[in-house]
Amino acid sequence: MRRVLLALAAGLLVVLTSTTPANADFRSDPRVTAAVAAWKTNRVYVDPLFAGSEGFEAESVRRAAELIAKAPVPVYAAAVPTGPWFPEKRDVVQLAGWLAVANGKPGLYLVLDEYSTSGAAHLIAVRSPRTTYASSSKATAADEVAAYLDEVEVDSDYQPSAARTTPLPDEPEPTYEPERFTPAKALGNGLGGFTLGLMGGALLALPVLGLAALVARRREGHS
Length: 223
What we know:
Elements: H1 2-18, H2 30-38, E1 44-46, H3 58-70, E2 75-79, H4 92-103, E3 107-112, E4 116-122, E5 126-127, E6 131-133, H5 141-149, E7 153-154, H6 183-222
Parallel strand pairs: 1-2, 2-3
Antiparallel strand pairs: 3-4, 4-6, 5-7
Helix pairs in contact: 2-4, 3-5
C-alpha cells in the first residue's frame, strides 16, 4: 500500500511540474519552493517521497545535517525526485542551480537521490564535482553527503560565480571533410584492388593445382 501511495504522489508531482510552461520561473517548481521554505530551519530537506525510506531515515538525515554544519562553506541539501520527465530532464546540476538562486544565499547546493549526489556552487570560491555516486546500494543520505564533500576544494584563488540555471549548450557534432579525389589516389586504389584480387585468386587456385598434380601422379603410377 505504501508503494502505491508513493507512486501516486510521484505522479502528481510530475504533473505539477510538467504542466508549467518551459519558460516559467523555476522558483515555482514545487520541489524548489518546498526546499527553500524548509531551509529556513534545517539545511537538509527531504521530500515526502523519500522521508523514512531506506537511506533517508531520521538518524541518517540527522547525521547528514551534522556533516553539513561542520563544512567549511555553507551547504544546503535537498533529497527530491528527479528524472527525465521533470523540467530539468537529466540535468540535476541545473536543478541544484535553481535551488541556489531561488534560495538567494551563497553556498554549495546538493541534490540527493538514492544513488547519487549532484551539486552546484553559488557565489563561493570552491571547486566541486558535478556528481558523485553512492558507494553501495546501502549508502545513506549521510554517506552521500560525506562522499560529495570529500571532493570539494575550498580555495580563495577560485573565482566565485553564480550557479548555472540554464541547460548546457548542445555539443556540436563532429564533422569530417570528404577525402579529395586525385588521379594518383584513384590509380593507387585501383592497383591495390588489382593486386589483392590477384593474391586472392592465387590462394584459391593453390588447392586446385595441388589436387590436379596429385591426380596426375596417381595416373602415371597406374599406367
